[in-house]
Amino acid sequence: MSNSTLKILPALMIAITAAWATQPVLGGAVHQFVLTENSSTSLAVTYDGSPLTVNPGGSDSWNFTLPAGFVNTSVEGGQAWTEPENSNLVNFVTFGGEVANLAFITSDSLAGRGVSPIADGTSVQVGTVGGVAVFATFSDKAAASEAVPETGTTCSLLALSLTGLAFLRRTLS
Known about the structure:
By secondary structure, the protein is α+β, with helices and mostly antiparallel strands. It has a domain at 31-146. Helix content is 26%, strand content 40%. It has helices at residues 3-21, 143-146, 151-172; strands spanning 31-39, 42-47, 50-52, 54-56, 61-65, 70-72, 78-83, 86-95, 102-110, 123-129, 132-140. Strands 3-2-1-11-10-6 form a 6-stranded mixed β-sheet. A hairpin with a 2-residue loop joins β10 (123-129) and β11.
């Protein structure tokens, strides 16, 4: 190699590395639904970070309007996420269908609608908008608000109440 080639080689290597490192990532743009169940009467939905209006349909049931141009690509028209506290129950979301521009959510329903449920909090592709993939993530945070009181505390409060009643009975007799 000549001396001039050796001088140009490091500059060429830096230029090639910089060009490779700054290449745009193909297919990087995606849309995202995030559904968060806070209780049996409260569901929050965002689309690309913006909140959507959620309409209640009763306990553990809601719907919301899908974005214009949404095309459903989910299996059986919907997706099921396993309930965190009971693997026999799922949170099922239907994207479109009979009413094409609405998504319907049913929480705490029995598994077995022909769709294999995925873990709570998992993101999965459910459709496209203008050829761009749309993913959905369901997070069930309602288990804490639906929990049964802890039995140790309940029993100790009951025992304390009965002791107080016994004391009052002896005192007032």
